[in-house]
Give the backbone structure.
Amino acid sequence: MTLKIHPAVNDLKSDYDKGKMSRREFIRFATLLGLSATAAGQMAGFAFPTTASAGAIKRGGKIRIAAPVHKVTHPAQFSWICPSNQLRQVAEYMSYTDENNITHPYLLESWQPSADLKTWTLNVRKGIKFNNGDDFTADDVIFTFKQWLDKNVGSSMLGMLEGYLDANGIEKVSDSKVVLHLKTAEIGVPEHLFHYPALVLNHKTFEGDFIKAPHGTGPYLLKEFVEGERCVLVRRNDYRIKGADGKSLPYLDTVEFVDMGTETAPMIAAMQSGEIDMIDQGDMSGPEVYQALKGNPKVQIYPVATNQTRVLRMRADMKPWSDNRVRQALKLCQNREKILALAYFGEGMIGQDVHVSPKHPEYCPIETPKYDPEKAKKLLAEAGYPNGVDVNVAVGSGWKEIVRYAEILKEDALPAGFRINIQTMPNSQYWEKWTEVDLGITTWAHRPLGTMVLNLGYTSDSKGAPAPWNESKWVDKEFSELITKANGTLDVEERRKIFCQLEKIQQERGSAAIAFWINVWTIASKRVQGIVSHPSLYLKLEDFWVNA
């Protein structure tokens, strides 16, 4: 299929040649505009590395991965990465954003945006079958989109898409072509299609519970799923993608996810004894595992820097956090260097209370607020709390760095007048109420574009109500308008100018305190091969194989 090159690709190439953007940024944006990663790499003078040689790969075998096995019904409702890592092996995504933040077509063969970024043509890959024998067609794509946009489903995809797309804007052209007619320009559509709840569903069999009808297009079949115990996958023999040896992937026969709870000590011991081959750290604390296993000769560690963070967020619609002076006061009580050093072994970057990482392409450098309990105390007095204020902070006990973050904050906020009571609970209990507590610390996963995070966490729906993942219920009209503008701005320098405004607003009157960004590690037994560490800790298990 021959596609026209989007006119903006030449502008991107000109900016790249002039040194205005990095090679990675050029390839990222060129692929979003419909150019293949190979073609974009060639334009930038870059060749993608080849995969492992066929002779090195061994087929068969089984691996065991420690991971919580949560109750699962509708994949679009995922709030956790671990269940997505289990079921992404059975169902798949329309696109795939790799470890370099470059987005590739997956269930889609290609996409083509209009010059104004308001019309997107999605070309559905032909010849794909679900594991029950049904053909994968445009009907499945449209059904999945409509599930995301259905308010009754309650998916975080709604918060990301609703600002630019509604169900009436989805047009079926043929069994292999869908056209999206957007309400506003949006550059991030392909990357949004790889948001971890965005698994594509079989429109003929899905009735709200994927476990009851686990019909996906992926490389594995779901053999067994027992909440709180295990998830067992077995290889699918007719998967469409071939491995380096010319045979259908996956290489492994069986993958078993074993629920060992949320405490890392038993998992570390199981890794050391060889009882398990890997720990899925997508939803759990990583530093303890890293510290315990980094010197083990039987373990391989794959590090990667990320845009992951832990967000201290305040419900802007509940007292005392409805007063911005109180929110600002708490932010000033963060001793950031101390928090990063003691909570996460210094393995990350300092944050500035803006949910945009220095590694996001649009990031605008902004001053880091200083620890200032005296100023915080004055702000509290101005807000009507001259004698200080008692507050509760909810945290999941399985995230050791979050508990430590809360403990440090409790100590350092006391001189300002904040008397903080730490309410620890199992991670699963925290996720049941994460959008409801007035003050909490929430894990936020890596996302390649700053706009993706801001759209998910700090916007409202068409009626002005906070989006599903807007956990702080903070809605700011100027901020929302600027996000919409940024969504449709391709030029990175112009986009960064908008982000300078967005970051300033969020720092000065927002509801989130962000003290640090974290590094992460994929950690596995050396018998497991083919691992590429993804910044979101996503697992692409069809590429894994084992030495006996």
In short: The longest helix spans residues 492-509. The chain has a mean pLDDT of 92.
